[in-house]
Design goal:
alpha/beta, Protocatechuate 4,5-dioxygenase, Chain B, nine-stranded mixed sheet, three-stranded mixed sheet, 10 helices, 17 strands, MEMO1_fam
């Protein structure tokens, strides 16, 4: 199918290679050189969660995940993202041979995508939808930058990529895809990028939870749903998130909901994360990619008897595009995490 064009270059991020390189260097240089008593990249941290908004919004947050990402042994890189451009049930694979960036093209691992396609579990991304989708593309320039820092300027030595869109699915379907992908996750020469923003708050997202009479209630839930308007029946411990626990601001409600989701991810238990999303309806757009990789990690950790702390995500950065105080406002949350295997 040729090369997928960098359709968001020049709008969501700069299309000038020199300018873009300088911007990414700046974002990465803002991240400390050490984290959690480790020099960066963190040895064995070959799985990350990172956001996918325009770089002016989420670029600084994504830098934390990318600086932690250990690519030194990588022979291929899986990129899992949600579909924003069409309804997808299950998972879909790219049909392109390469993904373009302002720096050059990253090659698709056609051997792996063909192997996955032969399972009968994956559909093909429609090429036009693939080009329109940003959840995968926004990681390609960042990945190129980190590959360049790891392997040098000869791009022919860079590992190929395996772009996968992860669509809608039940808890059991996520576990099933996680089991399928776990065989690749066990390979110490694979790295994984999971693409997700966190809470999307605002009327345009039909999600405006606020604190109301002891519960977090979604202003946009249909009144016919009655008690279902309550997002969380028992409010969190506001002393941990609110300046004034008696009257938390909207942005503090957002933080509390995101913290519940992040705590569930850090638990390493796929069913716990799935339940929190079902209970709160938090608009984590990459909830299905996160669910699939969590299911895979949980299986690998059990099979290989990984040491405590390994095989589980650890969040290292959390930001919001705006601190919401008014009902007509909006924001999107961004978070970065890594997992050591």
């Amino acid at each position: 199918m040729g090369t997928r064009e960098a359709s968001h270059a020049g709008s969501w991020y700069d299309d000038d290679a020199d300018v873009l390189s300088s911007q990414l260097d700046d974002f990465l240089n803002r991240v400390p050189a050490t984290l959690n008593n480790n020099n960066l990249p963190i040895p064995g941290a070959r799985v990350i969660i990172a956001p996918h908004a325009g770089y002016s919004y989420s670029g600084p947050c994504a830098a934390w995940a990318y600086k932690a990402l250990d690519l030194r042994s990588a022979k291929r890189v899986f990129i899992l993202g949600p579909s924003h451009t069409y309804y997808l049930r299950g998972c879909a694979l790219t049909t392109f041979d390469k993904y373009e960036t302002p720096f050059g093209d990253l090659v698709v691992d056609k051997a792996t995508t063909s192997e996955l396609k032969r399972t009968g579990r994956f559909s093909n991304m429609p090429p036009g939808r693939d080009v329109d989708e940003h959840s995968l593309e926004m990681h390609i320039p960042y990945l190129w930058k980190r590959l360049e820092q790891t392997f040098g300027s000869d791009s022919t030595t860079y590992p190929p990529i395996v772009p996968i869109l992860v669509g809608d699915g039940s808890e059991e379907e996520e576990k099933s895809f996680g089991e399928l992908l776990s065989r690749y996750l066990k390979d110490p020469e694979t790295a994984w990028i999971v693409s997700s923003d966190f809470c999307h708050w605002g009327s345009r997202f039909s999600y405006r939870p606020e604190f109301h009479q002891g519960s977090i209630r979604n202003l946009d839930a249909p009144r016919s749903q009655g008690s279902k308007r309550d997002v969380v029946q028992a409010a969190p411990d506001w002393s941990k998130v609110a300046e004034d626990p008696g009257a938390p601001q909207i942005h503090e409600v957002i933080k509390a909901l995101d913290q519940m989701a992040m705590d569930a991810v850090e638990s390493g238990t796929h069913s716990e994360f799935y339940k929190v999303i079902q209970d709160t309806h938090n608009t984590v757009c990459g909830r299905h990619p996160i669910g699939v990789i969590m299911a895979a990690l949980e299986l690998v950790a059990k099979e290989q008897g990984l040491q405590e702390g390994k095989g589980k995500f650890r969040f290292i950065q959390y930001q919001r595009s705006n601190l919401v105080k008014k009902h007509w406002d909006s924001s999107v949350s961004y978070a970065s995490a890594y997992a050591v295997i």
